[in-house]
Amino acid sequence: MSNEHAEAVEVGIGPLSIDDVVAVARHGCPIALSQQSRAEVEKSRAIIDGLANDTVPHYGISTGFGALATKHIPVSKRQQLQRSLVASHAAGSGPLVEREVVRALMLLRISTLATGRTGIRPQTLDTYVAMFNAGIVPCVREYGSLGCSGDLAPLSHCALALMGEGEVLDAYGTLMGAGEALRAVGIQPLVLQEKEGLALINGTDGMLGMLCLAIDDLRMLLTTADLSAAMSVEGLLGTDDVFAPELHALRPHPGQSASAENLRKALAGSGIRESHRDPEACTRVQDAYSLRCSPQVHGAARDTLAHAITVADRELASAVDNPVVTLDGRVESNGNFHGAPVAYVLDFLAIVIADVASMSERRTDRFLDVARNHGLPPFLADDPGVDSGLMIAQYTAAGIVSELKRLASPASVDSIPSSAMQEDHVSMGWAGGRKLRRAVDGLARVLGIELITAARGVQLRAPLEPSPITAALIEQLDLPEPGPDRYLSPEIERVSALVTSGMAVQAAESVTGPLN
């Protein structure tokens, strides 16, 4: 349901930010059109109207689409042409896509329409904005987009709702016909004119929306990964010496330095760490890679995320349509709808997630093995043999990591021809976005299990005191004291939800201030 009390995000000539997309799609902020955008939309529509009666065929205005682009369509059938385009392309199948994803793709299509580069009528844009702000979410389904020409099927389901057809969820999540939902909020369904059907469906908005949402999630999850790693280093009697800034300056990747700084802050003031700082009392020279190299892995993930942010920002500054109305008033065909730039980084991030989660699971496993956990009981069990401790929690993490490795297989290399070979190379960016969302969820769960395990390991080091940040995290996690086996699934679900919400990071930042 849209948040009527939130300040509206202005959509117009200037690009949206990733934070704008998250605020609108995930947190329900309304949107408003800038006056400058309205003037540009009116100007470009006049150009399309001027071409509608031209004897020379113009793609998307007086011709068919895709492989049928050579067929000229008479004026009397132009409205039917636009309706048929949208209805036939709304061919999605499978489960409904999440509300925040649909809101993101609607917002991003509105943003492109508002640039004045697509040639739609002002009233069409106004209707789209009104439907969006009324909290109406078209029923978009899992399968249907090849990521080229853009996310055709998902966007067609949205355009179909503007015409009063298809199914939607209203602001309260009630499933109903689009016509009924529009009537309930006083919106008149659209009859599309020349070029408008194509303008409404020809963009990379779905995959870009999923990228923006994943970026928001991963900014927080990579900080969480630093915190869980630090807690594991602490509980496994590891050293923080390897996180010294002068060591990371020797390999000046910015993400690595940022991660190492988080680890230093998280371990500062740890009585557990101080208990074995004397080299004469501690004979171990080096920690295992999953502890020692966490800044290198998490840092590489951060730098990959930074590249994804660059791509997202460029896409948010783009006007993706075909044909497009150029700034000097020409209507030109182009290939900007191809999703490759977004599809690649969606795949990159899935690879990153699999590796960060894999390292997290290895730290979890070390806590459970008496050969490697430096004096803790087997599986952190209260009465080993009678109790299994966290044995199967690690199985759960391992199963998720295995799934994440499968999800890391790139979608963007899996082109398949369509439209009678006219669209003979596609990006599969929508599929990349779908699997990335599942991967983000998996990472949060793996990190949650590491936090549960590391917290128990730290608790078992008593009376040694943890760092202030670790103490704050354990308090936020609200875990029982170590003891006999208990029903773990609800605990894992609750902690995973805390991770996803960002509350673990907030607990740490309440002690140390902002983290990287």
TrEMBL record:
GO molecular function: histidine ammonia-lyase activity
GO process annotations (BP): L-histidine catabolic process to glutamate and formamide; L-histidine catabolic process to glutamate and formate
Alphabetized UniProt keyword annotations: Histidine metabolism, Lyase
GO cellular component labels: cytoplasm
KW Lyase (keyword) present: yes
InterPro entries hit by this protein: Aromatic_Lyase (IPR001106), Fumarase/histidase_N (IPR024083), HutH (IPR005921), L-Aspartase-like (IPR008948), Phe/His_NH3-lyase_AS (IPR022313)
Pathway stated in the Swiss-Prot or TrEMBL entry: Amino-acid degradation; L-histidine degradation into L-glutamate; N-formimidoyl-L-glutamate from L-histidine: step 1/3
Catalytic activity as recorded in UniProt: L-histidine = trans-urocanate + NH4(+)
EC number(s) on file: 4.3.1.3
Keyword Cytoplasm: no
Subcellular location: Cytoplasm
Location (main, coarse): cytoplasm
EC primary class: lyase
Record protein name field: Histidine ammonia-lyase
Native organism: Yimella lutea
